[in-house]
Amino acid sequence: MKKIGFLSFGHWTPSPQSQTRSAADTLLQSIDLAVAAEELGADGAYFRVHHFARQLASPFPLLAAVGAKTSRIEIGTAVIDMRYENPLYMIEDAGSADLISRGRLQLGISRGSPEQVIDGWRYFGYQPAEDQDDAAMGRRHAEVFLDLLRGQGFAQPNPRPMFPNPPGLLRLEPISEGLRDRIWWGAGSNATAVWAAKIGMNLQSSTLKIDETGEPFHVQQAKQIRAYRAAWKEAGHTREPRISVSRSIFALVDDRDRAYFGGGQDADHVGFIDPKTRAIFGRSYAAEPQALIEQLKQDEGIAEADTLLLTVPNQLGVDYNAHVIEAILTHVAPALGWR
After folding, report:
1. pLDDT (tens digit, 9 = 90+) per residue, 205-218?
2. Using 50, 70 and 90 to split pLDDT, how confident is the model at 160?
């Protein structure tokens, strides 16, 4: 059995060919798609965060709105770039969104991905320490966030406060109990997956990974997940971790599907996400249901995960994306034992 959700990047463009021509379209349609996915029986609604782009950015208003409009589906991010985040303010935002959803928040965080601008975090007022690079700064922000989620007081109270204080040092409010166990790290390498396991975060592994062995993407991803699990066990954590992978998967069940995605076989791609870092990008899947089932049986990365996030082409509109999700839930997932 697997949890199956969708992952939206929230693209928008004023092009007349797009169903999302403004930021308002993207935000409101994201809420509608989450509602539709819940009605179809999907397990999660996840959203990507990109700054300086015509995509979804500040996630917490959207997460809170989805939480208020739904009752069962998990609500998450994949991922928030921690280089841009004030971890103290994020505690308040995350706690509020989780309480509104009654404990359904699954918050994916990470160092982030290649950006639209050069060192965009600098415009947000952040600067790595002299002995850090920006990736280390992102991990440090994450560590502060995780520590504060424990809900321990740390701030000295004013002896003459405007309102009465509880005794002792004060913590940030609101704290949502249990959220600490629902924080995920988006790992692009084996080493960062092991680091996430050691400090007790769940794992998100996407369709992009640093190419460490030259093997097919799904094989490298499976090895990353196994390394994560071994590190988790060695760390002695008492709960079972969650592990998600994301994929572009389209079951070709009608003429619309064939027109959009029936163009032939896809394959892994190799490229450079910066001048020094060679990365491998996982293939997309698009085929008639029976052929799709046989292809997905061979994907070792999916087999290792308990959660599958379907990346959706949000610019094609809510109705079509709901159809994409329903086709996987109906025609593919049962045959693979995911349902």
Report:
1. 988 999 999 999 99
2. very high
Of the pLDDT bands very low, low, confident and very high (cuts 50, 70, 90), residue 277 is: confident
CB 48 within 8 A of CB 9: yes
CB 26 within 8 A of CB 4: no
Residue 108 CA to residue 79 CA, distance in Å, equals 5
**Given the structure tokens 């929230």, which residue do they identify?**
10
Distance between CA atoms of 59 and 64, rounded to whole angstroms?
9
Sequence-distant (≥ 6) Cβ neighbours of residue 99 within 8 angstroms: 174, 176
Greatest extent of the chain over all pairs of C-alpha atoms, in Å: 70
Banded pLDDT at 113 (limits 50, 70, 90): confident
Tens of pLDDT, residue by residue over 119-155, are 999 999 999 999 899 999 999 999 999 999 999 999 9
DSSP 305-319: -SEEEEE--GGG-HH
Q: What is the C-alpha to C-alpha distance for residues 31 and 100, in angstroms, rounded to an integer? A: 14
CA distances from 38 to 34, 63, 74, 246, 321 (A): 6, 14, 9, 18, 13
Residue 224 CB partners (closer than 8 Å, separation 6+): 187, 189, 190, 193, 205, 209
Determine the Cα–Cα distance for residues 294 and 60; give it in Å rounded to an integer.
Answer: 38
CA distance 308 to 242: 11
Q: Rounded CA gap, 190 and 274, in Å?
A: 18
Q: How far apart are CA 187 and CA 194, in angstroms?
A: 9
End-to-end CA distance of the chain: 6
3-state secondary structure 49-113: CCCCCCCCCCCHHHHHHHHHHCCCCEEEEEEEEHHHCCHHHHHHHHHHHHHHCCCCEEEEEECCC
